[in-house]
Amino acid sequence: MFIKSSADIKENEITPESVYRDRRRFMQMALGAGALAASPLASSKPGFMTETPLTSGPDWLAKQIAQAEAYDKKITDKLTPYEHVTSYNNFYEFGYDKSDPAKHAGSLQPHPWRVEIAGHADKTGVFDLEDLLGKVTLRERVYRLRCVEAWSMVIPWVGFELGELLKQFKPTSRAKYVAFTTLLDKKQMPEQGSRFSTIDWPYREGLRIDEAMHPLTILAVGLYGKVLPNQNGAPLRLVVPWKYGFKSIKSIVKIEFTEKEPATSWNVRAPNEYGFYANVNPKVDHPRWSQASERRLPSGLFSPNIIDTQLFNGYGDEVAQLYSGMDLKKYY
Ligand SMILES: Nc1nc2c(c(=O)[nH]1)N[C@H]1C(S)=C(S)[C@@H](COP(=O)(O)O)O[C@H]1N2
Ligand SMILES: [Mo]
Question: What is the pTM of this model?
Fold first, then answer.
């Protein structure tokens, strides 16, 4: 038995979701009245939202996010509060402590932003984020995020289905994989200039094309109804909810259709510890720790909130068929 104070219960179980819902409703009302500026979330400085220093974006983006299609599935998990989602991060380009990204990611300039679409597709080129977002439907998606380090969160993302975007470029039959690359810029991402860095920058990730086209796979541009904070991978980051968090690459500048399985940062760094597939699996342990359970945030000394890890992070009904016939211990 773990001791739980009434304060814990209030913070963890009642407030986050209700506050979020209220906020969201409020913003939509404000927008409906054509008065975003009247919202307490809008800033006094025209063109930018400044609720936190690391969350800023142009008006067109804030509006598009606030008007995203609401999530219509039943939410069974408690949402991890905004404060935790945005202050406990992995973003090694800004340091290795969980608190580093929130402290240091202010040097990232996510607007304006361009993304290169390359490789085996009929249409390729460099596109403004605004143009790409003009061609997709923004949706809210509440997903569990399970880090390979055995902690997890529940996050209400705002984004769009990656497949909806990719199809528009008409990938050819040679497009078997999709490779993603994070921005490479020592000025904006100081850790990329560090001599002690153990990652070969830029951060890279990849998916098989059928994984990329799966409707659960999204590119996120917001969370909690707001523009994505820098520390969470602004302005555009991948979210693949049935895979370990490291697959969800942040601040993407390039998406390439490839014929061969692309190199991915963690797999290159420690191939016996981090596989290309990285599907959440309680039966396949990390060589140095068990993956059978996880610490669901927020967690504290007196309420560690340890829960069982689920195969495919609980999304097996939707994704298990992608791996039928594959040995998940071999393709970890
Ligand atoms: N470019 C980049 N993307 C990244 C990482 C990183 O260090 N650099 N960390 C990954 C890891 S290990 C996790 S768990 C998630 C964390 O996302 P969050 O900080 O939004 O919770 O981002 C992933 N994407
Ligand atoms: Mo992670």
Answer: 0.86
Find out whether 111 and 62 touch, Cβ atoms under 8 Å: no
| 114 three-class SS | strand
pLDDT tens across 84-136, in order?
999 999 999 999 999 999 999 999 999 999 999 999 999 999 999 999 999 99
pLDDT above 90 covers what percent of the chain?
A: 81
Going by alpha carbons, the residue nearest to atom 23 of ligand 1 is 246
Asked whether the beta carbons of 62 and 227 are under 8 A apart, the reply is: yes
> What is the structure's pLDDT at 56?
73
Mean predicted confidence (pLDDT) in 176-183: 99
CB atoms within 10 A of CB 4: 14
Residue from 80, 201, 248 whose mutation best tests the ligand 1 pocket (most atoms within 8 A of CB)? 248
Pocket test for ligand 1, best of 221, 246, 249, 313 (most atoms within 8 A of CB): 246
Cα(233)–Cα(127) distance, integer angstroms: 18
**Topology, domain 8-321:** Sulfite Oxidase; Chain A, domain 2 (3.90.420)
Q: Which pair of tokens denotes residue 231?
A: 């520390």
Judge whether residue 38 has pLDDT over 60. no
Answer whether 203 contacts ligand 1 (Cβ < 6 A). yes
Q: Say if ligand 1 is within 6 A of residue 89 CB.
A: yes
Tell me: the pLDDT tens digits for 192-226?
999 999 899 999 999 999 999 999 999 999 999 99
* 182 close to ligand 1 (CB < 6 Angstrom): yes
∠ CA 248-262-279, rounded to 5°: 45
* Sequence ranges of the domains in the chain: 8-321
Please tell me whether residue 6 adopts helix, strand or coil conformation. helix
Rounded Cα distance, 157 and 139, in Å: 8
Please state the rounded mean pLDDT for residues 135-139: 98
Residue that is written with structure tokens 């860095």 in the block: 197
Instruction: Determine phi and psi for 247, rounding to 5 degrees.
Output: -70, -25
Cis peptide before 298 (omega within 30 of 0): yes
Residue 210: C-alpha distances to residues 78, 319, 321 (Å): 30, 10, 11
